[in-house]
Amino acid sequence: MTEITRVQELVYEIKIEEVMTRDVITVTPQTSMAELSELLREHGISGTPVMENGELVGIISIEDLIKALAEGEMEATVGKKMTTNPVTLHADEPAVVAADYFARYGFGRFPVIDRKGKLVGILSRGDIIEGTLKKLEVEYHEEEIHHYRVSHIFEDIVSDRTSVVLHYNVASQDFEHAGEASSNIKLALTRLELPTQLIRRAAIAAYEAEMNIILHANGGGEIVAEVQPGQIAIRAVDTAPGIPDIEQAMQPGFSTASDWMRELGFGAGMGLSNIQWCADEMRLESPPGDGTCLEAVIYLTRKDEK
Amino acid sequence: MTLEELGHQLSLKVRTATGKLGTEVTGGYAADLLSCVMAKAQAGNVWLTLQGHPNIVAVASLLNLAGVVVTEGVVPEPTTLEKAEEQGIPILTTPLTTFTVAGKLFALGVRGVDET
User: Fold this and answer.
1) Residue ranges in chain A modelled with pLDDT below 50
2) Which of A85, A235, A260, B16 is deepest in the core (most CB within 10 A)?
3) CB A208 within 8 A of CB B39
4) Do B62 and A176 touch (CB under 8 A)?
5) A99 with A11: CB under 8 angstroms?
6) Does ipTM top 0.90?
7) Cβ contact (<8 Å) for A179 and B55?
8) CA-CA distance, A20 to B22, in Å (whole number)?
9) Residue A306 has what pLDDT?
């Protein structure tokens, strides 16, 4: 179903110039039908534009040749047997226009001209089909490479320790974009095809850490997600005043949030305990006046499943 | 039961993501403190809240909730609706209180996280 839709789309997307044959074999009105016969046979083509002094003056096809052969007029010139004022296509038109022309006129090929009227190529039905298939193939490969790269990064890159590190800047009091860093972390982990439960725990930890920065770090901060084989570390670093009593801060329900923050549903005093609940390891360092560094590590396989 | 059926039964007004109402609702959760929701609500749950600010979308999306019911006639902020539409999170509104909505959902068979 999607394939069909994509082909239909492609016919609108692909321009005639992308699929046409550029090296056009041409003849002049003075070429004889016998010479034409030889030329068509030699190049394996069934028709060709007729050019005179760099101008397109007509088109001649194998049908005209057969007619000339039947009438015993092989020595006649192309100029006598050709179709004058041939129907042309513009190079910058979408392939769908060409498809419509093929259906409407029943011709096997159309000369392609640019907007100045100069012959730049020739287009047959086969060219459209081939061009569409080629484009589909390229897209298919790109899609494959895309998928491949993301989910196989850890197996493919050889190092003593491989990790993917994602940095997100978080501005203080920026409620407009609150949750974006954690949403993007969740998206990245999904792309890396990690287990759902792991993603859920990392997303919750990242969200709480992000909200901590937005609510409490006056100068803003950074959320870092580091993905390693077997574990994810979420780090929140800020230049906030720091936490005077970490033990107290870890207590569920303890909060220093202002009234208006609480009114918005923040500052439940659950942030740090939520992180601890999600993490297998948690470190919180906040030397007075030196900012806060929080690290939550989540293992791929949890030892004590809660 | 799907969110669409629940919304119909309770006459909830669908504000966003009309195409995402077909998800089976796995349970319900009600709270206005976001960290509580983060800790308790399960994927596929419907969440009842009084909050109408954009962060409810982030919470719902991070937890893969089925949708959010904003109660007591609270009108979600325009940015909330924009973000919800963008991220495909259904937001439904009602003049009913959280208590009443929860009761009606319970009567329809939707259970809380402590019972599922």
Assistant:
1) 1-2, 305-306
2) B16
3) no
4) no
5) yes
6) no
7) yes
8) 47
9) 43
Cβ of B62 and A265 within 8 Å? no
Please check whether residue B59 touches A, CB under 8 A: yes
Contact A179 B63 (CB under 8 A): no
C-alpha B7/C-alpha B110 separation (Å) is 13
Confidence at residue A11, expressed as pLDDT on a 0 to 100 scale: 79
Q: What CATH architecture applies to the domain B3-107?
A: 3-Layer(aba) Sandwich (3.40)
Question: From CA A208, how far away is CA A204, in angstroms rounded?
Answer: 6
Domains of chain A as residue ranges with CATH: 2-131 (3.10.580.10), 164-299 (3.30.565.10)
Residue A225 vs residues A155, A167, A174, A298, B36: alpha-carbon distances, Å: 19, 7, 20, 11, 23
| pLDDT mean across residues, chain B | 94
- Using the Cβ of B98 and the Cβ atoms of chain A, whether some distance falls under 8 Å is answered with no
pTM for the full predicted model: 0.61
Residues from chain B that touch A266, judged by Cβ atoms under 8 A, are 33-35, 55
Q: Read off the pLDDT band of B51 (50, 70, 90).
A: very high
